[in-house]
Specification:
Keywords: Glycosidase, Hydrolase. The chain is mainly beta. It is built from four helices and 33 strands. Helix 2 links the parallel strand 2 and strand 3. The chain is globular and about 60 Å long. The chain binds 2-acetamido-2-deoxy-beta-D-glucopyranose (NAG) (8 copies).
């Protein structure tokens, strides 16, 4: 049984004033510490034209022999390729009008156990389509498209990558599918303007990377495509995700701390359509702090703001600030939960100093704030958060400062400067 109660809590005005001052001070540090500006395409070392066949070797050799600081440009029509690795200091530039398609042959991505393209209990049998590992100052640029082809029948199989992902639901196990782009243990990585579509698994993921700029990119997959997460910083520091459009079948952004802490992350001026919202979690065991999410429109995602952990994951989540959020039609505009999927263990999650400022939700929704215990509540401040009358508020062990501004109608637009 859930120990929920409905709240319409109105608190004294002085709390709201305190909150404003606090939020202003805290967001100075709670973001990417670098001064990030719009990236510029690097100069090219080679310009490649597609042969129409398998161009893996052509592209990989060009990347391997490209001078540091420069980019291999793909400049004509459609390239087909197996997995590629972008070396340190080198970038890939996919020109406007060009598509780089991942050949849907599981054997090409297999990590050795011959499990890629099958179901098992682990789901870690494939390498990514594009890997950046232990690199410094590498990137992916250009207004072209990288297509994971997860909607196309796999070579030697009778199904697509996405159909395999759906089979894992009924089989109660995991699909072995490649991520589209995986960055590991790198420094100063840029992903600029490119469109990343139809990823077989997480679309754009970075582990243990310090200095990561994701600017002006588009991520697209149908809302039914399972586990296609948009942009996932995992154990990363100094990250900026700005001016991006993300619409797919899972978290639009998911900040995690599976391999190390994630800190100093800015999520600015983005438009998210289908998906599961701006998420923190659930793998947050190493802790997440200093996250600043501002000027974000969510139009179609299941959740707006979602912070999730449980006693199995643990993790301290602190100094998370949201400012200027427009949520069109989320089921859960705000969802802060310390008992995510009721998974239990012996770790203690903590959600402290979360502030939500200037948020408007245009449709009725369910607002859920579930802490762990009276001595370990979710600590959140609300300032100028407008919600529609008829919304449901479920609160359990929630330490809320400020209040929801419940209105008959919040209109059909947020009217915040800079966001639609
Ligand atoms: C984050 O950026 C700041 C400012 O450039 C820098 O001093 C700091 O070392 C960076 N942190 C990491 C972990 O790279
Ligand atoms: C960022 O810019 C501000 C203002 O110009 C400057 O004070 C600060 O030192 C810069 N930080 C870094 C890490 O370059
Ligand atoms: C896969 O998706 C692409 C674009 O998203 C589309 O052009 C193509 O027709 C689709 N292919 C199949 C087999 O559905
Ligand atoms: C492929 O799948 C279809 C329908 O899912 C089925 O009718 C067909 O027999 C299958 N073919 C093979 C070779 O397994
Ligand atoms: C990247 O890091 C993850 C997490 O530590 C690890 O599981 C994966 O094997 C690494 N991949 C490569 C190519 O190093
Ligand atoms: C929101 O999504 C709906 C349905 O896709 C669309 O009609 C509308 O134009 C979108 N509005 C904005 C501001 O993105
Ligand atoms: C709950 O909020 C009050 C202020 O309203 C604060 O004094 C107290 O320390 C908070 N408790 C916890 C456990 O965060
Ligand atoms: C949010 O948008 C406004 C209006 O375009 C802009 O002035 C402000 O700098 C943006 N905030 C951030 C943090 O980018």
């Amino acid at each position: 049984m859930l120990l929920t109660r409905f709240v319409t809590n109105i608190r004294p005005h002085k709390f709201v004033v305190t909150v404003v001052v606090f939020a202003f001070i805290s967001c100075g540090a709670a973001r990417d510490l670098r001064n990030v500006t719009e990236p510029k395409n690097p100069e090219t070392c080679t310009i490649l034209k597609a042969t129409g066949g398998d161009d893996t070797k052509l592209i990989q050799e060009a990347l391997d022999s490209c001078a540091k600081g420069k980019a291999v440009a793909l400049s004509s029509e459609t390239f087909y390729s197996g997995p590629l690795t972008i070396p340190s200091g080198v970038s890939l530039l996919v020109d406007q009008g060009v598509t780089l398609k991942a050949i849907p042959d599981p054997l090409l991505y297999d990590l050795g156990a011959k499990t890629c393209g099958t179901l098992d209990d682990f789901g870690v049998g494939c390498k990514a389509f594009i890997t950046i590992n232990g690199a410094k100052s590498s990137g992916i640029y250009g207004k072209g498209t990288i297509d994971g082809q997860a909607n196309v029948t796999m070579t030697g199989k009778n199904k697509t990558w996405w159909e395999l992902s759906n089979e894992a639901v009924t089989a109660h196990n995991y699909q072995n599918n490649p991520m589209l782009v995986q960055i590991n243990d790198s420094v100063d990585i840029t992903v600029y303007q490119v469109s990343l579509i139809n990823s077989p698994f997480y679309t754009l993921t970075a582990y243990g990377t310090n200095g990561w700029t994701v600017w002006g990119i588009t991520i697209l997959a149908p809302p039914t495509a399972r586990n296609t997460d948009g942009i996932d910083p995992i154990g990363c520091q100094n990250v900026t995700i700005a001016h991006c459009y993300v619409s797919m079948g899972d978290d639009n952004v998911a900040i995690k701390a599976l391999t190390g802490p994630s800190r100093h992350i800015s999520v600015l001026n983005n438009h998210f359509d289908e998906g599961r919202g701006v998420s923190i979690g659930s793998e947050v065991n190493h802790g997440i702090s200093d996250v600043y999410v501002a000027n974000v429109t969510l139009n179609g995602s299941v959740n707006g703001i979602h912070i999730k952990s449980n006693t199995y994951r643990g993790g301290h989540i602190r100094d998370i600030t949201y400012d200027n959020l427009c949520v069109y039609r989320a089921q859960h505009p705000i969802y802060l939960e310390m008992d995510y999927v009721h998974l239990h263990g012996n770790r203690t999650p903590e959600f402290r100093r979360i502030s939500i400022n200037n948020m408007k939700a245009l449709k009725k929704g369910e607002y859920i704030i579930y802490g762990l215990s009276a001595s370990n509540p979710v600590e959140v401040t609300l300032n100028n958060v407008h919600v529609v009358k008829g919304s449901v508020f479920l609160e359990r062990f929630a330490n809320i400062t400020g209040k929801f501004e419940v209105e008959d109608s919040t209109g059909n637009k947020c009217g915040y400067a800079g966001i639609d």
